Amino acid sequence: MHPVLAEDRARLTELLRSVSELAGRELAAVDARPAARLGPAPEPQPLPAEGTGTEGALARFAERWSPGFSGSSGPRYLGFVTGGATPAALTADWLTAVYDQNVGSGIGSSAAALERETLAWLRELFGLSEAHSGAFVTGATMSNTVGLAIGREWLGEQRNVSVSDDGVAALGPVTVLSGAPHSSIGKATSVLGLGRASLRRVPLQPGNREAVDVAALADALERMDGRPAIVVANAGTVDTVDFDDLRAIAALKERHSFWLHVDGAFGAFAALLPSHSHLTDGLDAADSVCLDLHKWFNVPYDSAVVFTRRQDLQVRVFHNSSPYLGPPSLPDPDFLHLTPENSRRLRALTAWFSLVAYGRDGHREIVARNTGLARRLGDALIGVPHLRLLAPVRLNTVCFTLADDPTPDRVQAAARAIAATGDVFVTPTVYGHVPALRAAFSNWRTTQPDMERALMAITDATAPVS
């Protein structure tokens, strides 16, 4: 054994204690860490010929790289939809590396059974039916891609061809219908060989909505002349967290043939709130569902889930034929037969810990608190003369812009000025053809004082220079 590696092995407990101490200091100061770092990164250094050991690597990391990391796990990082890591999730993430289970195969470990238990709990949490089976993947993009891959195989089934065997060319032209699809849907159509041109946008409801006009969707399906399609519905859009009428869309299956995929990456968490659960009514009717846990579930990157009613088609797409891996036996095939990956880390452990530690009520409280803070920020921005709220605050995201001349350059400059304060980070977008900014509340740490500090930073950084 290499002498440096041997020394690290001998001192492993001591080294882990050092890492724990560094982590403790960083977490204790996360509220004070700037929400965004805009300065230049360190210059690259050559590959080390001789190692310094873990202690030396830790010291070099703390000196060169840690100071430039953003406070993305902190309470005022309101960019994208980024959760933090609750104490239970962080504990589980460390243990995931300690046990280092390859959960792709169920041979020789109970790790796969833990994932199945966790999936059953999540299915219940979001109100899905027992017909839905799930699997952990890396994020919403992969969840959407897997869901659409199963839908692609369903299209083949309707046309009496096997896409997994004969390729996507056997399908002929494919149509994917959606009102306001997330950009990852277009990416998925490209990855799956359906082509970005297959994604056709359906008119939205009037009144500056992001929800699809169900009548217009019905007309688009009618024009398919009986040809099957894929419909992507939204349980929470990116800019304004608008919801398609999932139940009404599902009812269209009585007259039309389509695979219903619901992108509920973070909006599906509305199901946890009695006051908002009507927004996810009909989620259980979906053929496949995307849920992203490193968003509002507050587990570390990367963690998401895809659920589907057609696990048989999922296996047909993703099964790995090799004697040493075993056959994809239903109803509980190994997870390597359900996702693009063969080898998989035990992503389920962070979710399992979180559900055991905080239960349904704990996660409901996070969603309720974030939703309330978003609403209060939106209400406050209405009273700021130089800013303009662009849409109602439906859940956890506030979409706003400059009241005067919101050009792309001016809005981008406003985003940089807000980030430069270090107090809050928001991301630019375009809503209704208007360059805008969006603040998304999804971190378990965020409280009323954080919202007030964010409001002050946003107001001051965007104020006109007199």
Q: What's the SSE blueprint?
A:
Layout: H1 3-10, H2 12-28, H3 53-64, H4 87-99, H5 111-125, E1 133-137, H6 140-158, H7 163-166, E2 176-178, H8 183-191, E3 199-201, H9 214-222, E4 229-234, H10 246-251, E5 258-263, E6 288-292, E7 304-308, H11 311-318, H12 348-382, E8 387-389, E9 397-402, H13 408-420, E10 427-431, E11 434-440, H14 448-461
Parallel strand pairs: 2-3, 2-4, 4-5, 5-6
Antiparallel strand pairs: 1-7, 6-7, 8-9, 9-11, 10-11
Helix pairs in contact: 4-12, 5-12, 6-8, 6-11, 12-14
Give a structural overview:
Residues 33-53 are annotated as: Disordered. The chain has 466 residues and is α/β, with parallel strands linked by helices. Among the domains are: 3-71; 101-348, Type I PLP-dependent aspartate aminotransferase-like (Major domain) (Aspartate Aminotransferase, domain 2, 3-Layer(aba) Sandwich), CATH 3.40.640. The protein is 39% helix and 12% strand. It contains 14 helices and eleven strands. A hairpin with a 7-residue loop joins strand 8 and strand 9 (397-402). The protein starts with a helix and ends in a 5-residue tail after the last helix. The model has no long low-confidence stretch (mean pLDDT 96).
